[in-house]
Amino acid sequence: MQIYLPIAEVSVNALLLLSLGLLVGILSGMFGVGGGFMMTPLLFFVGIPPAVAVATQANQIVASSFSALLAHLRRRTVDLRMGTVLLVGGLFGSAVGIVIFNYLKSLGQVDLLVNLCYVVFLGIIGALMFVESLRALRKSRSGAKASRRKHTTIQKLPLKMRFRISGLYISVIPPILVGFFVGVLSAIMGVGGGFIMVPAMIYLLGMPTKVVIGTSLFQIIFVAGFTAILHATTNYTVDVVLALLLLIGGVIGAQFGTIIGSRMKAEQLRILLAGMVLVVCGKLALDLLIRPDELYSVGPAGQS
């Protein structure tokens, strides 16, 4: 069943879009991630222009993150003070990312930038996640307990604040920088940034794991929402029809993913996720390296 997407200006099978939403929803339920880093490349593969895929995906991130955040608020595993500090950096980062995005769009290079960002970050994160998961799997089999990492450098920085729920007394500078970096990525790549923020909050800031997910979701909701608004008002690249189809599939898929994820070990889930991240990264890299069938495209003057 073909459906025309008015903003993307392409016709795509509606069942295919629902299936993509369902697939990423399953992954979201299994791995506890927003799924933006998987959904956006998949949209590239089915012919959605990168600019539209990035802007539209931010809407799905807001909806899925808000739903997950409610459960964490009930369990009181959200550090609102830390989330607010992260949010300050995230909003500034989103604004800077939009400026970079718009500038490169005016030069006709935004598609290349988005694809390169995905290849670089998915490759790095996937490789690190795969290695860490293998180590964790070996430790679990040998019965060794993982040692908690201490952050000595952060303790020396000024402007300290007490975060009671996280049990930390650290400088606000590292959380602001982490939020800023994730905000830039959210604007350019159309991701919530959880696949970068969560490891940074655990290993860089030293937050307890049980608080990290909920706090990350709190920040992501506002940053992704702010990013979606900026894209909609400055670039006009948010396709409501596309977002609706992805949301429907994602909500249904998340229910199945939660059931599947509860029956697998954490180390197995991380290795499986790392493998899928590396596969997507490889496909994007291959598309950039292979010579296209048509070297030129015909379009209105001033557009790429």
Automatic annotation (TrEMBL):
<protein>
    <recommendedName>
        <fullName>Probable membrane transporter protein</fullName>
    </recommendedName>
</protein>
<keyword id="KW-1003">Cell membrane</keyword>
<keyword id="KW-0812">Transmembrane</keyword>
<feature type="transmembrane region" description="Helical">
    <location>
        <begin position="271"/>
        <end position="290"/>
    </location>
</feature>
<feature type="transmembrane region" description="Helical">
    <location>
        <begin position="85"/>
        <end position="104"/>
    </location>
</feature>
<feature type="transmembrane region" description="Helical">
    <location>
        <begin position="240"/>
        <end position="259"/>
    </location>
</feature>
<feature type="transmembrane region" description="Helical">
    <location>
        <begin position="212"/>
        <end position="234"/>
    </location>
</feature>
<dbReference type="GO" id="GO:0005886">
    <property type="term" value="C:plasma membrane"/>
</dbReference>
<feature type="transmembrane region" description="Helical">
    <location>
        <begin position="110"/>
        <end position="131"/>
    </location>
</feature>
<keyword id="KW-0472">Membrane</keyword>
<dbReference type="Pfam" id="PF01925">
    <property type="entry name" value="TauE"/>
</dbReference>
<feature type="transmembrane region" description="Helical">
    <location>
        <begin position="51"/>
        <end position="73"/>
    </location>
</feature>
<feature type="transmembrane region" description="Helical">
    <location>
        <begin position="163"/>
        <end position="181"/>
    </location>
</feature>
<feature type="transmembrane region" description="Helical">
    <location>
        <begin position="12"/>
        <end position="39"/>
    </location>
</feature>
<keyword id="KW-1133">Transmembrane helix</keyword>
<dbReference type="InterPro" id="IPR051598">
    <property type="entry name" value="TSUP/Inactive_protease-like"/>
</dbReference>
<dbReference type="InterPro" id="IPR002781">
    <property type="entry name" value="TM_pro_TauE-like"/>
</dbReference>
<feature type="transmembrane region" description="Helical">
    <location>
        <begin position="187"/>
        <end position="205"/>
    </location>
</feature>
<comment type="similarity">
    <text>Belongs to the 4-toluene sulfonate uptake permease (TSUP) (TC 2.A.102) family.</text>
</comment>
